[in-house]
Design a protein that fits this description.
Elements: H1 2-12, H2 34-39, H3 52-67, H4 70-85, H5 88-103, H6 106-120, H7 124-135, H8 139-144, H9 149-158, H10 167-179, H11 182-194, H12 197-209, H13 215-223
Length: about 220
């Protein structure tokens, strides 16, 4: 268990991808400068119907492109071509990784960046060895580290208690786990080892229905 936990910290969370920062606020098409409008012209007809988050991301991408040098633009186009050449399954895996990153709280994103810095400072041979060891672990265990340092470490101890959560409940379950204090998660770990699978699933459903401020008390009562 300790070996897996060490690999997870050095590689699992270090491989999380960062995304461009969003620009706050709703932006009307007419308020965008001409150079940025030219880049975003394919979206002009549907601009008012796009979600704010999509508009903000498009603006961030366009402004980053305008700030780039010609060499940086060429490198970005090359990376885009490499992305397009990836098999659909690999693109889906990377998108899922990026989505997981965006859901992490800022404090955990900072932990991930620090882990990535430590990993990058290792000798190339050691990085390669750790990547190989990480790749040899079960896929479910690897995926658990996409949930962030705290949840990844918790699942490393608690096993795949939430591995088969319905897709419709996944985001809510993740938020619930992230909102719990470390002490409450530890109690949940102890409780999960005592309950049969049907009771564990019922507890998960009860926790999702409970107001966030009452979940720790619910876990404590079940543990008793």
């Amino acid at each position: 268990m300790r070996r897996k936990h060490a690999i997870g910290w050095l590689v699992g969370i270090a491989l999380l991808a960062t995304t461009l920062p969003a620009i706050g606020g709703t932006v009307a098409w007419g308020s965008i400068d001409a150079r940025t409008q030219a880049l975003l012209s394919p979206w002009q007809g549907e601009w008012d119907t796009l979600a704010d988050a999509d508009r903000q991301r498009l603006l961030a991408n366009a402004r980053q492109w305008l700030a780039m040098s010609e060499a940086d633009r060429a490198a970005l186009l090359q990376r885009q071509a490499q992305w397009n050449a990836l098999p659909p399954a690999e693109r889906a895996r990377r998108r899922a990784r990026d989505d997981a990153w965006r859901q992490l709280p800022p404090a955990e994103q900072a932990q991930v960046r620090a882990a990535a810095t430590r990993f990058a400072a290792l000798p190339a041979a050691q990085q390669a060895a750790l990547r190989s060891r990480f790749a040899a672990q079960p896929a479910d265990w690897q995926a658990s580290w996409l949930l962030g340092p705290s949840i990844g470490a918790w699942l490393d101890q608690a096993g795949m208690w939430f591995a088969y959560v319905p897709a419709s409940d996944r985001d809510a379950t993740l938020r619930m786990l992230q909102d719990l204090t470390p002490a409450a998660r530890e109690q949940l770990f102890v409780l999960s080892r005592r309950l049969p699978s049907s009771r564990r699933e019922q507890l998960r459903a009860d926790l999702l229905r409970a107001p966030p401020g009452q979940r720790a008390a619910l876990i404590a009562r079940q543990l008793q």
